[in-house]
Each structure stands twice: as structure tokens, then as C-alpha cells.
């Protein structure tokens, strides 16, 4: 006995006929057209679509309109609370605008970032947000910019988070200034022998924070010797191994600055495993103020970035929606997002 033929899915023509309206009215009622539809007609179309089980063809809409209602967010590592906090801000802002966020992970691999952008272009998102730090000397940077420029030429919008990425919209982070202010505050607490667990040399965020911290120490006449700088992965394990390297070298330090909070958490664990009490033995400071660092023992001194606000601003810059964060425009573009030094138990006064 042959299987019964499956029922064909309802089409927009079916919905229009069921509602007793024109095909154009049915389309405008269901597909978010900017042209207004009489409310009684719109309601008839919606009810007819529900009765027939009709669903809109989002891909067909994308072809017709040139974009979907999708926001593509590229992050280096979604497990890192820095990026998940930014993602929360993007998602909240997108919800307010009726947009849906998809997240892609690049792993701080510049070729993977380029390949991901190329793949995402084929899905016709309305917005692409690149949240990872830029990398110096990347062989793929020019190709990336070309892909993004072509994306904008066809109606898409791009925004970056971190360093200036002109001509694309950018949410600037004052990594250098925030690290400088942290160094000054720590010197004011009486610390004099510093070491830094820096990220990979090619990541501009890590380099900016290292340079800003050194500038702040210099304001107090405190040098930062090259042997007191350890470059490690931008991860918790990178911070752990960097602290082990410092301890193995016999570095006599009273404070370790890790250039992000997840690295600083690794430093805290490495010190404790070596029998050194973080804070009272050697002070530890980080950068970002991810939620985790308020709950570890001792609570971590850090530089606060309003990460969810950063994500929200990146989305709203790209869509052109109104946004008032109180940050003045310098006349040469928006000023960097302000940071705040937060002193906690990991850096008691010396």
C-alpha cells in the first residue's frame, strides 16, 4: 500500500485567498513592510496564516530585501566572560529592535575571522559586529576590510569593538588610559616592585594595556624591567603559566598585573598553589571587571569596563538607532568608553 501523499505547505497565495485580500496586502502584513496595512486587513491575514500553518520564508525575504533581521556577532572566545558580557549587551539591544543575534567564534585566528566573515556574508545579516581585538601585522587585515567594505556597499552595516577601525563604526575602549590610571592607583597604595603578565605580543589590546601600565608607573618614577614582563595566552591558563614563570625566575615582586581578568584569576591560583597568599603575600590586579572577580577570594582589583553597555552601543551604532550614553563626541568621532579603577582585597595598602 503506497504512503499517502504529504500535504504541500501553505503558500502566501493561499493565505491571501483565505483572507480575501490581495497578494501584496498579505505580503506587507506578514513580512514587516514599512508600508502601512489597514489593521483589520492585517488581522485577517495573520489569522488566515495561523489557520493554514503558513510561515514566512526568511531566506526569500533576505534575497528580496538584501538582508535578514539577523545580527552576526564575532567574538574570540564565548567562554570568556568578557565576550559573553558584551554579547549580552548586543542581544538585549537587538531584542529591542526586533533583531536576532547569531554568534561566531574566531579563536583569535585572523584567517578564521576572515573566513567567517565571508561565510556570514552569504547569510545576508543586517549587521556584523567584530568584538575581538585587532592584531598587528596580520596578513589578512586588508582582505578583511575589503570584505566588510563590500558588505556595507550592498546594504549591510559593520561595527567594531576596541581599537579604531575607521572607516567602520567603532566603540573605542581606552585600554591605555585605563591601565595607566590603575598603575598610578597601585603606586599610591605603596607598591613598588611590579611584574606584568601580558597577552600575546600581536594583540593590540594587550599591548595597549601593557604600555599604559608602564606609563603610569613612570609617572611615579618606577621602572618596569623587560624581565618582569611575561607574554602568555589571553586565558586563565596563560595567566597561571605566566605566574609560574615569574616565580621560577625568582622575581622579587610585590604586585602582578595581568592584562585581563581571566589571566588574573590564573595568577591568583598559581600564587596560592605556590604557597603564597594572593593579596597579603603578592598583590594581584586585572582588567575588565568581569562578574567572576567580585566573588573570588580575595576579590580582584581591576579596571571596570561597562561591557554590556559596550555591546549595546556597538549594535546601536551599526543600526543608527538613538543612543545616549553620556559620552561626548569630540568633534572627531565619539570619545572612548570611560573606565574606572576598582580597588579590592587583592591589593591591600602596603
Topology:
Layout: H1 12-19, H2 23-30, H3 39-52, H4 58-65, E1 70-75, H5 81-96, E2 100-105, H6 110-121, E3 127-130, H7 141-153, E4 157-162, E5 169-172, H8 175-188, E6 194-198, H9 204-219, E7 229-231, H10 236-248, E8 255-258, H11 261-273, E9 283-285, E10 302-304, H12 307-319, E11 340-342
Parallel strand pairs: 1-2, 1-3, 3-4, 4-5, 6-7, 6-8, 8-9
Antiparallel strand pairs: 10-11
Helix pairs in contact: 1-2, 1-3, 2-3, 5-12, 6-7, 8-9, 10-11
Explain what the structure shows.
The chain is of the alpha/beta class and 350 residues long. It contains twelve helices and eleven strands. The strands form three sheets. The chain has a five-stranded parallel sheet with strand order 2-1-3-4-5, with helices on both faces. A four-stranded parallel sheet has the order 7-6-8-9, with helices on both faces. Helix 10 (236-248) packs across helix 11 (261-273). The longest helix has 16 residues, at 81-96. Residues 1-5 have low confidence and may be disordered.
